[in-house]
Amino acid sequence: MGMILDDVRIPIVLSPMAGGPSTPELAVAVSDAGGLGFLAAGYLDAAEMSRRVARVRAATAAPFGVNLFVPGTPTPPEQYAGYLDRLGREFPLGEARFETDDWAAKLDALVAEPVPVASFAFGSPSAAEIGRLHAAGTEVWVTVTAVGEARLAIEAGADVLVAQGAEAGGHRAGFTDDPAADDRDPLSTLALLQLLTAAVDRPVVAAGGIATGAGIAAVLAAGAAAAQLGTAFLRCPEAGTVPAHREALVRDIPTMLTRAFTGRRARGLRNDFIVGHPSAPSAYPEIHYATGPLRQSARAAGDAGNINMWSGQTHTLITDAPAGELVARLARETKDALEAALSRRFQSC
Fold first, then answer.
1. Which of 14, 145, 186, 246 has the highest local Cβ count within 10 Å?
2. Reaction(s) catalyzed by this protein (predicted)?
């Protein structure tokens, strides 16, 4: 089975952004422009995932991917009950519950109706699960945040690694969410990319803080097979980003890592909710489901202070151009940046 990236004209991968921004239209636009579009299946049941996959298939013959969340294990209620009790005095909350995100049914659906690429966050599928996808003709990508995770993914049979650096917006996609490790600085995209390319023999897609052609050129020069961009597409008209989030992205607001909204570390634009709840426990997806009503209410009211506005560190560089135009512009910028870097280097020799 050949690498799907060999058939992708432009080395730009759309980050699968679950929870709203990811749409079939956005995935189609990126793939049609020569990149690799992705559809986020996190928080969808298998039937809805299949409906969205069908919409992508009907709109393009270009390759695309689907992203799933690997389920974890339940968190003991005593670890998050106090936090939710405090939140419940201020906000409407839902049921704190553990779910597998319809994992088994979604895997079955992808085996029955294969897609070119299936990618995974929050862990690696088992060797048996990857074997089923391979048998169906699907390439498997696993998102990692450390060399140890990469080795586990390769042992299970992963074809490609997505290196998620600290600059990336949204949830940290590592295999665990250990508060004991919070005092360790997460690896930057460039640092992680260099460590992975030195340690493993799989193609690596770099993700995190990449918003320009120069950024893409930098990771390609450092050995990445492609660059994965998410925040860069959040203001595209095809994205499902809510208006309050779109508007906030253009302002010079710092990003922060937080567990306040979901119980799992994620990078988002700093707002009242994140600042007001700095000590949220690690309890995903239980806290995610509990805070669902408060986030929904805030989105409906346009209340940016209580919305999880996931964003990478370079959000002030993004535009509202259509996704296809953005891919084309980034491709030109990348080519120019690589040529300029080579020209400067050889002129100095």
1. 14
2. 3 propionate 3-nitronate + 3 O2 + H2O = 3 3-oxopropanoate + 2 nitrate + nitrite + H2O2 + 3 H(+)
Angle ∠(120,121,124) on CA atoms, nearest 5: 65
Residues of the chain with pLDDT under 70: 1-2, 345-349
List all residues 6 or more positions away from 52 whose beta carbon is below 8 Å from its beta carbon: 24, 39, 41, 44
- Write down the CATH number for the domain with range 4-73+101-249+318-347: 3.20.20.70
Contacts of 75 (CB under 8 A, 6+ apart): 98, 263, 281, 282, 283, 284, 286
CB atoms within 10 A of CB 138: 22
Token look-up 């919409």 returns 55
> Would you kindly state where each structural domain of the chain is located, as residue ranges?
4-73+101-249+318-347
pLDDT in tens, 221-276: 999 999 999 999 999 999 999 999 999 999 999 999 999 999 999 999 999 999 99
pLDDT at 347: 62
